[in-house]
Amino acid sequence: MKIEMNINPDADEKITVSAKQMTPELTEFIQEVEYRFNKPRFNGKLNGHVYPIDLQNVVQFIVIDKVVHAITVKNQQLVMSERLYQIEEGVGQQFVRISKSEIINLEFIDYLKLEPNGMVKLYMKNGNVTYASRRYLKTIKERLSL
């Protein structure tokens, strides 16, 4: 693949991709570029203060008592005002839904273990352990190339 760049102060900012056909790699590249330029802005509350959330530091989004929490690398739990489906729509390819009440960051999976009941036990790099429901197993396998 060739990359051409044209620096022109008067030009509109845009990225053009020319390809013979759409491939999974190209689709992922386009989604990642769109995410970088249209990065969602999320805020979370902790101890009465509102903090901007850097998605690179979020291990998982989880619903606890009907309230969405962002769990960070440092195991901080920030309360979100958005619903889980809104977060799912706004985050990039590095996140995947693993149950009705949880979205995880693929970058923070330490390892997986298949349980006898068919569920997948996920060990996260921050020490948390969670489970993926069978309903989302196909999507998880595709995203992890398993």
Task: Note down, in words, how this protein is organized.
The protein is built from 3 helices and 10 strands. The protein has 146 residues and is of the alpha+beta class. The strands form 2 sheets. A 7-stranded antiparallel β-sheet has the order 2-1-5-4-3-7-6. A 3-stranded antiparallel β-sheet has the order 8-9-10, with no helix packed on it. The longest helix has 14 residues. It is globular, with a radius of gyration of 18 Å. It starts with 23 loop residues before the first helix and ends with a helix.
The amount of helix comes to 10-25%
Largest sheet: 7 strands, antiparallel
Span between termini:
26 Å
Q: Given the structure, what is the number of helices?
A: 3
- Described by the principal axes of the CA atoms, the overall outline is globular
Mean pLDDT: 87
Helix-strand string: HEEEEEHEEEEEH
Radius of gyration: 18 Å
Beta-strand portion reads 25-35%
Strand order of the largest sheet: 2-1-5-4-3-7-6
